[in-house]
Amino acid sequence: xxxxxxxxxxxxxxxxxxxxxxxxxxxxxxxxxxxxxxxxxxxxxxxxxxxxxxxxxxxxxxxxxxxxxxxxxxxxxxxxxxxxxxxxxxxxxxxxxxxxxxxxxxxxxxxxxxxxxxxxxxxxxxxxxxxxxxxxxxxxxxxxxxxxxxxxxxxxxxxxxxxxxxxxxxxxxxxxxxxxxxxxxxxxxxxxxxxxxxxxxxxxxxxxxxxxxxxxxxxxxxxxxxxxxxxxxxxxxxxxxxxxxxxxxxxxxxxxxx
Amino acid sequence: xxxxxxxxxxxxxxxxxxxxxxxxxxxxxxxxxxxxxxxxxxxxxxxxxxxxxxxxxxxxxxxxxxxxxxxxxxxxxxxxxxxxxxxxxxxxxxxxxxxxxxxxxxxxxxxxxxxxxxxxxxxxxxxxxxxxxxxxxxxxxxxxxxxxxxxxxxxxxxxxxxxxxxxxxxxxxxxxxxxxxxxxxxxxxxxxxxxxxxxxxxxxxxxxxxxxxxxxxxxxxxxxxxxxxxxxxxxxxxxxxxxxxxxxxxxxxxxxxxxxxxxxxxxxxxxxxxxxxxxxxxxxxxxxxxxxxxxxxxxx
Amino acid sequence: xxxxxxxxxxxxxxxxxxxxxxxxxxxxxxxxxxxxxxxxxxxxxxxxxxxxxxxxxxxxxxxxxxxxxxxxxxxxxxxxxxxxxxxxxxxxxxxxxxxxxxxxxxxxxxxxxxxxxxxxxxxxxxxxxxxxxxxxxxxxxxxxxxxxxxxxxxxxxxxxxxxxxxxxxxxxxxxxxxxxxxxxxxxxxxxxxxxxxxxxxxxxxxxxxxxxxxxxxxxxxxxxxxxxxxxxxxxxxxxxxxxxxxxxxxxxxxxxxxxxxxxxxxxxxxxxxxxxxxxxxxxxxxxxxxxxxxxxxxxxxxxxxxxxxxxxxxxxxxxxxxxxxxxxxxxxxxxxxxxxxxxxxxxxxxxxxxxxxxxxxxxxxxxxxx
Lengths: 258, 300, 370
Hints:
heterotrimer, A: Rossmann fold, about 35% helix, globular, C: mainly alpha, MetI-like fold, two-stranded antiparallel sheet, 10 helices
């Protein structure tokens, strides 16, 4: 697992609306890349193209390519469902399945993809919950409802669910914005551990979080009012936050706008 | 109340007399209206209970049919009618529930906002407005006049489908709308195809509400009399075969005996049958609401 | 990003199991595919200048071929259900028309204006004038009785009662909807009819000179009693919809009225009722539609007038509605021409309820849009 992502000249459209223009970037394996920028400039949209989740909205399409170690996710005949088995996602609001227990939630990805062996499932659930730093808190109540946990625990549950299917890449769309500060810190620690096994891309509104957690940062902004979102600058986190190349980046970092 | 002075203190005076009177009148009217609504319900229920309770406390009521019983004789029970009512309702549900659930899935999961969905939704609205007698006539025209099949309990069930379908479809639709999109997204993000997402994630989440709709639909069709009058003949004995042309049901048991004078034993049986019918229908209603209450709390 | 490892020891990197997507058990659901094995690779990291680099192997990613038959089958199932429903409704109209036409053509009376109903034998003389009158009169009277009461109850539930009380009361009102109509018919005939007879008598004695309230032979089985029962039966549906509409009155409008020092009634008059007007009208029409189609309660309560008796436009007369006429004669559908006549009556009922319901939906939609 943990593959390299190459985005090449990607334009994203919703119907005829041009949402994000001409993005090119590389994400190295086993690193954390953060997307930052003001609201509505395309960070989440771009994130969703990395696992073709944006296509859930009718009329959404892209030009360009996204490659995972050379395999184009948008190649001819590639099924989005197949892509999503390989690129996992964690959402802004924790969304465990309400009709399932903790165990069933974590196992759901495997089960729904055909894995039936109790042994495999149990091992996978334990492994994922350990990796998500949730095992000790729930190991005695795996049969209880998934929605009975606190917000931070639910989000870690969703992370466990996503990594149980052993994706190559883990995408996180503002995973902490609905959580309290203590849970946020717990998840940030978790991201530091996750990057040993996965390539992680995280969208965040919180610049300090991006600075704490990521190896590489990409700054997005609208080219102008009414124009598509653009990648303004991408580089090592230290550099972006201390000595960025673009003025717009510096303005955003220092809080002059957004 | 502040004294009227000419200083600059604010005066809080009560609204004028006329306005207060109007307000009180409104309150009175509204209270009377509520009483007018509750009183008939209590009245009907108490009438049925008082006139019918004696027979249903007897176990023979629940175990025997009316075979061999004339209006002048005591005895017999409603077993044949209860079984008939339940049987026709279940056959109806076997068709109406899958059709209704799949129709709702079409409207919400596959067609939200599309022209097809609007067309189907409009048709469902029309279906829900069709009087039960018209539904019965349609099945009569189709089955008996055109196909020449003759009366049967199956025909009744088909007419009942026309009446139960909109109830199941609309309530399933409401339930599916309540399932948040974030759950569907979570499933897609795990690489699960759409149909599996619907079957294994959306439907289980909406299940309680769907059950409620099914129960309310069942309660409704069990009380329908018109299709029974037109499509099947009343039987006094036990007959479980859905394709034969006679079958008993509680509404027709009531109807068959309603002209009798109060002195005859048959009269009391009519009210006992009415009480039995109300009990079954009320039970289904309460069960439905209980399920709704229990499943919504779980999601909080 | 290069992983800097300053003490330059060899790191063994176990690469845990890759769930190989090319073995995708989903689309082979009929047989149990082997579960992908846990494969442990131990790649030797290349050391360059004492800095350990993570080796990026570009062996690409295997993306599974997903079988989409599940999606195709399911989607076509859903579409078929939708189509079946549409066809069902269309067929109801078409079939009724097809079977009614021969009898309509053979009818020697004017279908719309005749009050006769001779359908046995060869000479068909039938018309729906009498049925139309009874149906419309009883339903409109029911609506006139029910709507003010329903609005009052809906207001009570939303504006007067504390939330904890209005829940159970709402529940009780909904129970009224659960009572089967045959029981209302039974109760109406045996209990309510005799109860209302003195009131009917009083009305006749006072205003009996108006033809609408004129004396008639059957005060117990009269349109008046039937209308009261119908009103009770349509109360729950009008209340439920009105209640929902009133509950959705925007908070701002209510608070604006309160801030001006309005009494509760004035708040209702200025904020709730105007907002809810189209909803109430729509609810009333739906109630009217329900009353028009009610069969059994009416069949039991109304006394069928003898064939050929003179027409009295009184609400205290008996009569037959479309629905009750069909139900009363259900046992006699023995010849196609006879059945066709009744089906023609049913068709008219279908069209009328269709129109009423359609108007109700249009009013509701327009109200929701504004």
